[in-house]
Amino acid sequence: MPNIEREQRQVVVIGAGPSGAIAAALLKRNGHDVLIIERQRFPRFSIGESLLSHCIDFIEEAGMLEAVQAAGFQVKKGAAFAWGERYSAFDFGDTFSNGKPTTFQVQRADFDKLLADQAELQGVEIRYEETITAADFNAAQPQLTVQRADGSEYVVQSEFVLDASGYGRVLPRLLELEAPSNFPLRQAIFTHVEDRIDCHTFDREKILVTTHPTQRDIWFWTIPFSNGRCSVGVVAAAEHLQGATDLDACLKGFVQATPSLAKVLQNAQWDTPARTIGGYSANVKALHGPGFALLGNAAEFLDPVFSSGVTIAMRSASMAAGLLHRQLSGVAVDWQNEFAVPLKRGVDTFRAYVEGWYNGSFQDVIYHPGSSAEIRRMISSILAGYAWDQRNPFVAEPVRRLRMLAEVCASTPA
Ligand code: FAD
Questions:
Q1: Residue nearest to atom 39 of ligand 1 (CA)
Q2: Which of the following CATH numbers is that of domain 5-75+102-180+282-345: 3.50.50.60, 3.40.50.300, 1.10.287.4070, 3.20.20.105?
Q3: pTM above the 0.70 mark?
Q4: Which of 6, 97, 282, 382 has its CA 20 to 30 A from that of 158?
């Protein structure tokens, strides 16, 4: 590419979603030059609307908490689960980890724009409607090819690249780092409704996760917003939803087949065409390499059931930004032992509970009325996002603890 325009920057971040905006702001706050290249124009739709408490720690760290608090998003204080007559609610104000007691349920178009605008206000440069199309990590410094909306191209060279491209998975694709997820193929159908909920048991300050009456691997989210609207979605193995040509009818059909949820949504105005996303679980062979690290969904995405996506994205952003600051300041960094290994520890905690959700063992625990208050506080901590708190026995040994607890629940029928 002899005549192509070239530019030199210190750090390039691919994508201005939550992981990109937080990482870029943290680096900028430490005095580094950061350029974000974002393929879309914001605001843009994104799924992933229920945040966990731990997100607030990173929003605060990036100096964006006041702006987020002032934006009028729905306050979220916990998570509720319903299966037939059974109802189990966890309060983020009462957790083992004593983390942030509240968080938010957000329309991601607005939320992501707010974070990106905050990063810009702090001095990060964001170029919208520009797409990374190629990457070369064989030269002395990483080189990314950027395509503008008008089709013209340029190359940006930098000391380091953070890939925060989410489902775009730019570097995993370009550097052949993609690895299969070990979760089966699942699909979600979802929409926003004018909810008109007047059900007295419904708590707008919690996400409601509803288990299908007979097929326990099918579940629904109901995420209320502050404007009288709700995000509603169903998640099922792809074979249950494949062939659904009318997404609205399919989603409504599943809701109607689930009486407790049909009751909550009985007055809803279904005014927005449903969307679908499938095959979203993904993994990678490596979370970093010479000159780059992968953040958020560009790395691994597990499953939406515990709303852990944005939390993992922000946690990875915070960790990578801290390490990169050290590296750019001349300190040697061990990306494997200081980034990949500790990040994966928390991801694997979520993984254990996601697996337990779908094989039924974690649902048995959640819906069992007899768990002790202390155990519920430990579980609540994980549901609030504190999946890296090794003091919590349910974090330190998730598989063994969950198996033991499920056995106890099974031997003491409700
Ligand atoms: P994103 O938010 O996806 O941002 C990536 C950005 O990169 C995008 O703006 C994109 O335009 C840009 N980009 C992509 N390719 C390129 C390119 N080539 N060049 C330049 N820019 C590019 N998480 C939760 O926390 N709570 C939930 O309730 C929740 N529900 C979910 C429900 C479903 C059905 C699914 C599938 C996921 C859900 N998630 C949820 C997960 C959540 O959507 C993601 O984890 C989160 O958005 C990841 O943030 P990110 O910053 O990594 O990526």
A1: 48
A2: 3.50.50.60
A3: yes
A4: 282
